[in-house]
Specification:
single chain; AAA+_ATPase; ATP hydrolysis activity
Length: 260
């Protein structure tokens, strides 16, 4: 499912504009990395796309087969299509299985509804996908920070979203698990045509997996490009530092800031 931003504006009450006139279309089956300094609007944009916040003006439109603005949809309907993973989610006093099962709520009749066989199967699939099946009946409060993060993403996958929105998804993960997570997100985008949009401060990690990059700068969209087109000049403008680039095998590129 495509997601399109039409001249999007947003400001928190009494504050300066956080986002100012964003226009972009994010295609299904692709990973898009949101890059920018703290305060550039990455988290705000993700919350707008998840329907948690409402734009002051402009529209966010979910593409075919729905072809509707988020403004026309209630929270439950939005949750049929969009799953959101926040930066830091404190673990609830539930088992991992029961927590991931919460991802099925938008597809059920309410809190009192009994989970169907399909619900239980999808939870098990999500736990397997995130390699949490052995921890299914462990309390969330007993997990490490990285395991909690994996469980949060498993819940989002159990939701079966067409659009998966993640704010700093590799927080609390060591390098090995960062790579494993990004592999799993790419697999979801390719196998299920899921539109995956994530913010990240690690530029090189983001660019190894993302298909496209949205560069947010001073409330505006500086560039929305394939990651292969990113330049040192883009990053210098974005972060206020001079960058160098190293090109390795298989056309992989690595960026790092010059020392002062």
């Amino acid at each position: 499912m495509d997601l399109t931003l039409h001249h999007l504006h947003f400001a928190y009450r009494g504050g300066h504009p956080v986002l100012n006139g964003l226009d972009a279309t994010l295609a299904d089956g692709q990973l898009t990395a949101l890059l920018g300094v703290n305060g550039s609007g990455k988290s705000t944009l993700l919350k707008l796309m998840a329907g948690i916040l409402t734009p002051d003006s402009g529209n966010i439109v979910l593409g075919a087969p729905l072809d509707q603005s988020l403004r026309q949809l209630g929270p439950r309907r939005i949750a049929h299509y969009c799953a959101y993973v926040a930066q830091n989610s404190p673990p609830p006093t539930l088992t991992v299985f029961d927590y991931v099962l919460l991802g099925r709520l938008p597809h059920q009749g309410g809190w009192s509804a009994r989970p169907s066989a399909t619900d239980l199967e999808l939870v098990e699939q999500s736990l397997n996908h995130m390699e949490l099946i052995d921890l299914a009946y462990t309390p969330m409060t007993k997990l490490s920070g990285g395991q909690v993060q994996m469980a949060v993403i498993a819940r989002a996958l159990a939701q079966q979203p067409a659009i998966l929105l993640l704010d700093e998804p590799t927080n609390n993960l060591d390098p090995k698990h960062q790579v494993q997570l990004m592999d799993k997100l790419r697999a979801a985008s390719r196998e299920k045509r899921t539109t995956v949009i994530f913010s990240m401060h690690d530029i090189n990690l983001a660019l190894q997996w993302a298909d496209r990059a949205m560069l947010l700068h001073e409330g505006r969209l500086l560039r929305h490009i394939p990651t292969t087109q990113l330049t040192t000049g883009d990053l210098s403008t974005l972060f206020g530092l001079r960058y160098r680039m190293l090109e390795g095998h298989d056309n992989q590129r690595w960026f790092w800031p010059e020392t002062f």
